[in-house]
Amino acid sequence: MFVTPREGILDPQGRAVEHSLKSLGFELVSGVRVGKYIVLELATESPAQARQLAEQMCEQLLANTVIEDYRIRVEGE
Amino acid sequence: MFVTPREGILDPQGRAVEHSLKSLGFELVSGVRVGKYIVLELATESPAQARQLAEQMCEQLLANTVIEDYRIRVEGE
Predict the structure, then answer these.
(1) pTM: predicted TM-score of the whole model, two decimal places
(2) Mean pLDDT of all residues in chain B?
(3) Beta bridge partners of A42
(4) What structural domains and CATH numbers belong to chain A?
(5) What is the residue-wise DSSP string for chain A?
(6) Is the complex ipTM higher than 0.85?
(7) Which of A16, B7, B33, B54 is the most exposed place for a label (fewest CB within 10 A)?
């Protein structure tokens, strides 16, 4: 799963990283956003079931849906 | 960029997330790894140049290569 700050929401971590990158001489960089990347295994019988569980996990724990978006990629789909 | 704990390196954040997921009833989950997902724009003239800069950024700032691996995806490549 990919959990990222929603469009239009301030991303202080992204700002900090952008500032640091520019200080290091990476002047061409802009629009830095920092999110979470979560990999896990699910002992389900089908990719569809895995996706359904992954959605529930994001909604209930992994993403704060007020300020974050999430995206799910299921291997074997 | 995707920055993840190296294989074999303890991932306390992943452990904590796995524990929480199981507490919530997601019993089918295992092997949780938590990493960072960094999106940014680079005003370069080519995707190849963007990749080269992204690699330097990971090595110098974004990843701690002693304990973390990184992977780069460049749009337009």
Answers:
(1) 0.89
(2) 96
(3) B29
(4) 2-71 (3.30.1280.10)
(5) -EEEEPTTS--HHHHHHHHHHHHTT-TTEEEEEEEEEEEEEE--SSHHHHHHHHHHHIIIII--TTTEEEE---TT-
(6) yes
(7) B7
